[in-house]
Amino acid sequence: MFLITSTVKSKRFVLFAAAILLLLAGAVFADYWSALPAEAKATFAGRSTCIDCHQDQAAKFIGSDHDKAMDLATDQTVLGDFDDATLEHDGMTSRMFRSGKRFMVRTDGPSGELEDFEVKYVFGVYPLQQYMVEFDRTPDMPENEISRLQVLRISWDAIDKRWFYLRPPDVDDKLLPDDPLHWTGIAQRWQTMCADCHSTNLKRNFDPIANQYHTTFSEIDVSCESCHGPGSLHIELANKKSLFWDRNHGYGLAKLKGEDPQPQLQTCAPCHSRRGLLDDQFKPGDLFTDHYNLELLRPETYHADGQIKDEVYVYGSFIQSRMYHKGIRCTDCHDPHSLKLKQTGNETCTSCHQHAAGKYDVPSHHHHAVGTPGAMCVNCHMPHTTYMGVDKRRDHSIRVPRPDLSVELGTPNACSHCHVADQLQSIDDKSKESFASKEYSLWLAAAEQGNETIADAIRRTDQWCDEACEKWYGDERKTPPHFAEPIVAFRRGEPNSIEGMLQLVMQPDEMAPALARASALAELAGAGSPESLSVARKILENQNESPIVRAAAVNAFVLASPEAASRELRKLLEDSSRLVRNEAARILVASGGYQTLTGAQQLRVDRVLSEVKESLMETSDRAGAHMAWAMLCEGQGRFDEAITAYETAIRVEPSTTGARSNLATLLENLASQNPSPNSAAMLARVRELRLAELPLLRRDAELVPDNAALQYRLGLSLYLAGEMDEALRQIEKAVSLAPEVAEFRQALELLKQKLEQE
C-alpha cells in the first residue's frame, strides 16, 4: 500500500513539474514571440537617452572630433583669438573682436566692402576651426530652423594657434564677391558643402521657389544615432521586462559587429567618401549604393594609380586596398567612440602584422634608422596630403611604395614624398626659395601645371628611389602589374591602349578593385570608345558584380543606338540597386532609347525617373540639379517642364553657367520647329540668355584654363554669338587639352571649313 501511494505521489509530482515546466516554456515562448510590429519605425531620441547604459562609450565620445563637429559660438567652444586680432590678406585687413557676448568678424561681405558679421556657429575643432555666419533669416523663422549659413575663409589654426586665410586650391588672386569661391558664395555654404556629415539627422529643407533654407537637425554634431541609427526602438526594447531582444528588430539598432565587415564600413562610408546623393534616407547598416553614388577615379581627384589627389575622404581609397579585401574594418585601427587610434606609432600596424617577430619594424625591412620618419609604417604605406591649409590626411589605400611606376607612369610614390626635398640643392635659387617648405603634393601640382624645373627634380628623385629599392630588395622586390598602367597608356593615347583598358575592366575584383574597373569603363565611354559597349554588356550579365561597376556599364550605353539602349537597359528598371535603376532610366532618356519604347514601357521608365528626380532635388539648392532634371524632361518631350526647371536653375544660382545656354537652345528649337505668335519673344529671350552667359563662361574658362570641356563650351558660345575667330581659338585649345575627345576634334574641323568657305 505504501509503495502504491508513493508511486502515485511521484507520478503526481512529475505531472506537476511537467505542467510547471510547460507553463514556464509557454511563458518564455510567449515572451519571445511578443514583438514590436515589423513595420515599426525608429525615431531619433538623442544622446541623453544613451548615456545611462553606455557610460564608458559616452566618456570616450565626449571631446572627440564627432562630438565637436559643430557647435554654437560660445566662450567654451570658440578657440580663435577674438581679442581685437587682425589678419592681413588680399590687400585688406580683417578684424576679429567681441561685441558683448557676440563673436564678430569685420571683413569683405557680399558688397565687396568691409562689414561686421556675427559668428553664430563654430565648425570643427582640430587641426583647424572654422566660423559660420547666418544670412537670410526672417523674423518669423522657428528657432529650431537654420537659414543660409556661410563659412568664413578666415580660419583658426588649432596647432600653431594663429589666424590664417584658407585659400581655395590653385587660387592666388583676391576672390570677388560674385565668385562662387568667395566666402559668401555657394562653395562656402554650410548646407551645400558640409552639413550632411557634421550634424545628426540633418534635413536641408531648401525651398527653390523662395530660395530659402529651413534646415533642421536632431543634434548639432555627429552624435550616437549618426552611426547606430535612430534609437527609440532600442530604448523601448531595453526597458521591457523581457528575456529576449525583439525577434523582428533585434537590438533595435544597426548591427555593426559580426563577421561581415560591410555593415560597419558602409555606415562610415557616407561621411568619409566623395559621393553624390541619391536620397536622404540612409540608415546605418544600409547599402551605400542604394543612397549614394561614389565618385570614380577622376584625374582631378585621384592620381592614375588611385592615390589621393583632391579631398576624397578615405572610403574611395580604402576600398582599393588589400586590407579591405582581407576583411579589415575601420574599428580594427580606430576606436569607434573616441576616434583615436587604438595603438600608438608602428603598433597600429604591427599589432596585426606580427608574422615572424620583427619582420617589418626593423631596418632590414624599411632601410631607415629606427625612430626617424622613414621608419614609420604610415609614412611609407599611407603618405599624407595636406588639405585646408593645415589638415594632413593619410591615403588609406595602404600600398607598397612603387617608385618603378613613378618612373614609368609619372605617378607619385611615398619614397619621393620625403626625398624630393633632396633636390633643392640642384635647382635654381628662385625655385629653391619657392619650394623649400612645400610638401610633395605641391611639387606634383607644379609639375602638372608645366613647371619643368620641378618636373625634372621629381623625375630625378623617382629614378633615385627606384634604384635604391632595387638595391635594397633585389629579387625579392614586388612589382606586380598595376591598374594604373592601362589607364595612363589610354590617357596618353598610346597604340592598343583601348585593349588594355578592356582587359582591366574584365579583371576579377581581387586583381583590380571595383572602383578602378568602373573608372576605366567610364573613361572609355567618356572618350566615345564603341568597344566599351561590348564589355558593358558582359558586366551587366553578372548580377554579382559591384553596383559601382554595373552603373558604369549602364552609362556606356549612351553610345548605343536608341534601339540597343532600349533593349539592354529597360530590364534594369527593376534592378535591386537603386544606383543601377536610376542610371538605367537616365541613360534610356539620354540615348534616345526612351522614344523607342511603348507607352507602357515609358510608364515604367517614368516611375524610376520619379526616383531620379527625388535624388536630384536632394540638392535643389544647386543649379545643376535643376539642369539635370530639365535635360531629362527635354528627352521625354516635356518641354514646358524643362523650361521651368532651367529657369529655376538660373534663379537658384544666377552666376552658374549652363542653364542659360541650354534654355536658349531649347527655345530656339521650339521657335523654329513650331512657329507661333510667341516665336519672336522666344528668340529675343534666346539672345538675352546667350549674352548673359558669355561673361560667365569667360570667367570659368579663365579660372580653370586646363579644363577642356569648359574651353569647348566657351568656344561654342562664342560661335553662336558670331565671334568666330575667338571661337576657333577656344575650340583649338579644347582639342589641345583633350585630343582624345572626338566631339572636340569634329567641331574644330567643321568650324575651320565654315571659316574657309566664308
Low-confidence stretches: none
Largest sheet: 6 strands, antiparallel
Strand content: 5-15%
Q: Averaged pLDDT, please?
A: 93
Number of strands: 16
SS content category? alpha+beta
Distance between the termini: 131 Å
Percent range of helical residues: 40-55%
SS field, number of helical segments: 32
Measured on Cα atoms, how large is the radius of gyration?
30 Å
Shape label: globular
Précis, in short:
This protein has 758 residues and is of the alpha+beta class. The protein is 45% helix and 9% strand. It is built from 32 helices and 16 strands.
Keyword list:
758 residues, alpha+beta, six-stranded antiparallel beta sheet, 45% helix
Question: What would your notes on this structure say?
Answer:
It is a single chain. 45% of the residues lie in helices and 9% in strands. The chain is α+β, with helices and mostly antiparallel strands. Strands 1, 6, 7, 8, 9 and 10 form a six-stranded antiparallel sheet that branches. Strands 2-3-4-5 form a four-stranded antiparallel sheet, with no helix packed on it. The chain has a two-stranded antiparallel ribbon with strand order 11-12. Helix 13 runs antiparallel to helix 17 (452-473).
